[in-house]
Amino acid sequence: MPFINRPNGKFTNEEKVKMFHQMGGVAAVLALVCVILLETGAAGQNRELVDMGLTAMIVMLAVSLIGSMYFKR
């Protein structure tokens, strides 16, 4: 299902901000899961992989913050 249903396919600034907020929300939840896996020791031998995933989620949070601030101006 498409995010917008327009013939020209262009996003408005409000829709762009909404997408960045959704991306930030998903990244925050996944980062929380990664932290829980690391702190409880459930990651086991996949600790490096979970560390890499946590770093990627931190980058996604930063990108979503910068993107939403850019389009809110």
Task: List its salient traits.
single chain; 73 residues; 74% helix
Helical residues, percent: over 70%
Give the uncertain stretches in residue-range form: none
Sketch the topology as an H/E string, one letter per element.
HH
The tally of helices reads: 2
Q: What class would the helix/strand composition place it in?
A: mainly alpha
- How much of the sequence is in beta strands? under 5%
Notes on the protein architecture:
It is built from 2 helices and no strands. It has helices at residues 13-40, 47-72. Helix 1 (13-40) runs antiparallel to helix 2 (47-72). The longest helix has 28 residues, at 13-40.
List the helices and strands and how they pair.
Elements: H1 13-40, H2 47-72
Summarize the structure.
The chain is mainly alpha-helical and about 70 residues long.
